[in-house]
Amino acid sequence: MLAALLPAMLVIAQPDLGSGLVYLTIAVTLLFVAGVPWRHLAGLLALGAAAIALVLVVAPAAGVQVLKPYEVERLTSFLNPSTQYSTQHEGYQQLESKIAIGAGQRTGSGANSTQIQGEFVPEDSTDFVFAAVGERYGFVGAALVLSLYALLIWRTLRILTLAKDLFGALVAGGVVAMLMFQVFVNVGVAVDIMPVTGVTLPLMSYGGSSVIATLLAVGLLQSIYVQARAAEALKGRVLRP
Amino acid sequence: MSPLSPITAPEAERRAQGASQEPRRGPRLMLDPVLTLTVLGLGICSVVVLGWVTAKAVPGQPHYYSERQIVYLLVGLAAMVALARIDYARLRHYKVAIYVALVLSILAVLGAGSSANGSVRAISFPLFSFQGSELGKVLLILALSALVVDRSRQLHERRRPRG
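Structure tokens for the assembled complex are given below, as produced in the milestone run.
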């Protein structure tokens, strides 16, 4: 866990809170896949909760600002939707995103979409790309994209179970943690049920680093699958009379 | 006496040898079809959506961002196939180098990265910008997994009774 804390803290210092949280999620998931006892994991989660309380409540009350005011507002604004009706407020991005998704209705607004074309939704090609899917293609388009992610995550879990060794299972576990966290948080932010943390939607958001890193992770999964099949074939050959 | 005639014997022998030589070949590259098709499906969705969202972003170049996304996807797919050909277990031996590369890539971005929206997340190059934290996710998975495997083996060695 300590090995993950250093890179996570460095990334949070950029500041890139979203990626830092992905790092910590990967670390906890690897411990879970490795079979660490529940009480140790519960202890880690309790430490995490205490750290959040310290940063957001205790430190500001003592006059120490760990996060900048706009960062605190961004993290907590989703809890107070009624205060989002101002463009000066950090939560207005999520409000505009929610309006875009709602406007898409069943099959989407098509070329007449106003939220995205009118540039009301910020970062509509990266962090809020799901809002663009929702408005342009509606429930049908959003369901298709989410179904593809469900398929991707199911297949990753299947490869985890096929892995020929612990290292393969851990790598697949890390990849599934990365993908699940990013999909849940990105879509959660777009529909205003999670705080804005700047997480990309894997393979959908624009950006070379994100796309290539995700496909490298998928390459690792493919390698685990290929090696598992090869090991199985070899075992079958040896056991055959 | 052999049931094979002298004319057919070499061909049959080759066939018989083929079966025994099969294990010497490396594993055939059979990518997981479901995973591959899902990734391609998401890539196509991305290009279609970005083509619409960014059509007016660069005047006179409606396909600027979608074309770049296609290039990123093609580079990523090539990297995926290349990585699939490698036995991932070999990467475990390079855990220290991978961890150092992870920390250095993040430090490089902090030191030489360009600022955008109040944060320093990427180093800008002429054709692309490198975001160390994205690559870092994959490096972290590899380094931590190797570390956990080694630690797990050490614990098993300690618990095993010596005799």
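Chain B has five helices and three strands. Chain B touches chain A through 80 residues (CB under 8 Å). Further analysis is deferred to the final report.
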